Amino acid sequence: MIAFLKRYGATIFGVLLLAGAIYVVQREFRGLSVAQVHEAMAAISHHALWLAAGCTLLAYAVLAIYDRLGSLYAGKPASWARSLMASFCGYSLAHNLGFAAVSGAAVRFRFYSAWGYSAVQIAKVIGFTSLTFGLGGMALAGLVLMVEPEVVPWLGTHLPRWALQGLAVPLWGIVAAYVVLSRFFRTITVFRHEIELPGLKMALAQTVLATVDVAVTAAIFFILLPPAEGLTFVRFVGIYLVAYSLGIFASVPGGLGVFDSAILIGLSPYMGAAEVIGALLVFRLYYYIVPLFIAGALFAGFELSQ
Q1: Exposure string over 61-83, b if 16+ CB within 10 A, otherwise e
Q2: What pTM does this model have?
Q3: In DSSP terms, which residues pair with 189 in a beta bridge?
Q4: Which DSSP symbol is given to 250?
Q5: Distance between CA atoms of residues 294 and 220, nearest Å
Q6: 234 Cβ partners below 8 Å, 6+ apart?
Q7: Mutual angle of helices 273-284 and 258-267, in 10-degree steps
Q8: What angle do CA 80, 82, 219 make, to 5 degrees?
Q9: Under DSSP, is residue 256 helix (H, G, I), strand (E, B) or coil?
Q10: pLDDT one-digit tens code per residue, 184-201
Q11: CA distance 115 to 302
């Protein structure tokens, strides 16, 4: 049984998430018309659209710094242009193709191998960028638990506030441990694998950048939503983190259906489904679809140039 779960557990979990997502989405769409969604999208102000577009550019710029720092960590600094190219194409394609860790790594491997990086150096860049996002997610999740613990699904209404706030301690503890270890140790051994730590300054930069990245990406969506009583930005970040994490675990392209249903459930106490779906469609256009076409063109051009 344990061997079966090790082999198929992730797949089964992803299928269950997708099935639940399909149920939620069809339930929400049952009493919804295209006209209602169109009206909700039309109600988004031009100011909000431009501000969300600016946040999208900022989010992808921050992701480029991930790759720049990753190349420094690997011992072969890439130019800003190359960091931007590898990061933008890697993340844009990974966001849309599903199995983000695998697809993003494959795109980066293609770029960095063409630029003369060894397999070990490429693995360091990929590992560094993957870990960086996790640090930001844990740091922000801890903040949400401290400030708005009630946002946690189901537990928020069944556990006392102090107990939920206590869940922030291990999250912040992991981040703090990583920073402290990076300050005092050059390498550590995890599961019999020796891992080189980046040093204090780079570990701090990772944590700050990742926190900014997650916050800015969540802000894209939050800006597109209509004002709602009780929905603070910190509370929305909690909803966004849960939805995004479930989308990653499901390993479906763009978290399609899973991310959307989690967002619908999380925002249902604050606004109607039409408003959420209207903002969701614009968010996907900004953060997923437009970057996908640009990244596809850039990647095709790169391949033709080789």
Answers
A1: ebbbbbbbbbbbbbebebeeebb
A2: 0.86
A3: 194
A4: H
A5: 19
A6: 143, 144, 147, 148
A7: 140
A8: 65
A9: coil
A10: 888 887 777 778 888 899
A11: 12
